[in-house]
């Protein structure tokens, strides 16, 4: 029988609150914690623990998946795979590597992602969309970066059309930002994974 505690121990409350705040900041549907599941008892309730690997997948960081930040297996697929592994006979071998799972989102084109990082840094330098415990969530900050990007493009389009001297005034920005974009380009792996020949 799965063990569920209907109360949250006082010592764990700050961690639960932090995790819940992060989760609700990332999801469209709000969640609440009503109990705590004991994973040891949950695994034991499904059968003897034998130290098996129940799910395996790996991300190869590249520009296509923004250094491994996007394109992960969907939660539903992972959970279904784990349930199938738990239903196997005791003593079964570790599961094989999941080489082609359904992914939670499409890859972001590299030029667009690099532009969003620059917009996130107010067009002064690329700035990552790091996870934060407080403040706007990553999706919200990405939306703000998109808005900045469109505003930036509109400003310069109108400026070049209406102010002939603007190209001269904007000349210092390109030498400033190009080395930063080149650095960003070098930091992300661009070599595709090669099959293991051994």
Give a nutshell description of this structure.
By secondary structure, the protein is mostly helical.
Spatial separation of the terminal alpha carbons: 45 Å
- Any idea what the radius of gyration is? 23 Å
Low-confidence regions: 40-45
Order of helices and strands: EHEHHHHHH
What structural class is derived from the secondary structure elements? mainly alpha
Tally of DSSP helical segments: 7
Give the strand order of the largest sheet, numbering strands 1, 2, ... along the chain.
Answer: 1-2
Instruction: Report the helical percentage.
Output: 40-55%
In this structure, how is the largest beta sheet organized?
2 strands, antiparallel
Q: What is the oligomer described by this structure?
A: single chain
Please tally the β strands and state the result.
Answer: 2
Descriptive account of the structure:
The protein has 198 residues and is mostly helical. It has 3 domains: 1-46, no CATH class; 50-107, no CATH class; 110-187, no CATH class. Helix content is 45%, strand content 2%. It has helices at residues 13-26, 39-46, 75-86, 110-120, 138-162, 166-170, 173-187; strands at 4-5, 36-37. It has a two-stranded antiparallel ribbon. The two termini are 45 Å apart.
Please render the helix and strand layout as text.
Elements: E1 4-5, H1 13-26, E2 36-37, H2 39-46, H3 75-86, H4 110-120, H5 138-162, H6 166-170, H7 173-187
Antiparallel strand pairs: 1-2
Helix pairs in contact: 4-5
